What we know:
This protein is mainly alpha-helical. The protein is about 75% helix and about 5% strand. Helix 1 runs parallel beside helix 3 and helix 3 packs antiparallel against helix 4.
Amino acid sequence: KALGPEHKSTLSTINHLGNLYADQGRPMEAEQMYQRALQGFEKALGPEHTSTLKTVSNLGYLCTRQGKLMEAEQFLQRALQGYEKALGPEHTSTLKTVSNLGYLCTRQGKLMEAEQFLQRALQGYERLLGTDDLITYVPALKAIWGLGILYKHQDDTEKARTFFSKALLGYEQVLGPDHSDSRRLRRALCDLDDVDEDRRLIRAEEPVDDLQTGPSHLELAQTPGKSKRRRLI
């Protein structure tokens, strides 16, 4: 009413509403807000303004979460190219988009590219913030979390646990142990424990061909005509 539907402040509020709806698990409403903000920013500020690019990046991340991976890639690549041109390769907005591209590539099964993007984002944050402040900066924690997801996809549970644990430490410190993201990370760590336990059970149940592999474990054996005794086979 005071500024009009296409004023920058109005459009920024619409974009923030999109963020709120996305966090609340209301993706259709979030997308409507982002698209409205994007059209307004493009008209008022141009396609390469950083406010426009921020909404483009938000749309890319939302589409990734919705499984619209081709659309997500288009949005995120556009945002990355724009940010690198406008702000440089190591600005926090650029690095956030790089991290989101890493998450997208993980969803696409492009695990080598995913690791490159996520490591680039994390190393950039480390250079900007230092190792001490890194653990309290949520976008950096998302990159750490993303690497945990990547290594889980690669069946490297040891690395996945390291990154999940580091992300959890940061989220609990910044947002508290009862925040939804902290709870999700604890569940992710429990899932890894289940995976490791399943693997131990599978290995324990695998038949052993003594002719090929030889002795491998302790067992009770009884020899005909002799008393029972515990021996190493």
